[in-house]
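Quick illustration, no need to memorize.
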Amino acid sequence: MHTVMASSLLNFTLPLSHHQSIPSSSLISPSNHNSSSNSINLCSLITRNIYHSSPFHSKRRNCNFKQRGICRSSLSDVPFLEQSKDELIGSLKLKLLIAVSGLNRGLAANEDDLRKAEAAAKELESTGGLVDLSTDLDKLQGRWKLIYSSAFSSRTLGGSRPGPPTGRLLPITLGQVFQRIDIFSKDFDNIVELQLGAPWPFPPVEATATLAHKFEIIESCKIKITFEKTTVKTTGNLSQLPPLDIPRLPDGLRPPSNTGTGEFEVTYLDSDTRITRGDRGELRVFVIS
């Protein structure tokens, strides 16, 4: 058995320099009964020679890598890839998407989920830097899908604002939520898909509510929206019914808490992802649809 082990080790090609050799006394032989000690000595010798033959064994060896993103480790001269800002932002966006996935846009979020989503959003906001809508206004254009709102954890369609509950008190099921923004006409529409329960044996009524607003930029990253009207359009089996417009109440008939306006900040914005912070503390994450 010792003979086979020694033969196998001798056939192993060691990365020795031209002036180094393995002393015969350090090899395991059939006559050497202290096999454990010799095995350790041989492993140490192999490790020393592999390390000294490595092109990175010297801490002072110069690194001549010229490619972008290549730099040296402070602990050794083994090169590693340094993330560019775009790559870092991409990884932080993925981290945020993972944090909010499976939360049903925030309706299923608990306190721990809220904290994780908040931390991931702050990382992306910090890395992306301040948003300037005077130069990036064109990035707002389009139809955006809401994938997370911290306000939905309060279990109301209005988030921290007054709104119908999404639990069992009323048979309302919240579907997808979108924002449609037109930077030319200044239209800002919140579009909510709803399913309204109906008494048996009638099927649920499916509808889309569009809350039409106008918007204006009031600061570099802050938007003010002014409510105009709500349009409800049935879909599914009742899609042939005409839409119903619910106009904005006159100022004298609205309660003081309902001014018909709102403000929020755009804290992160690129071609496919947007983060906003509402005037009541809501964190909302959108992706282009």
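Residues 1-40, 42-76, 159-169 have pLDDT under 50 and may be disordered.
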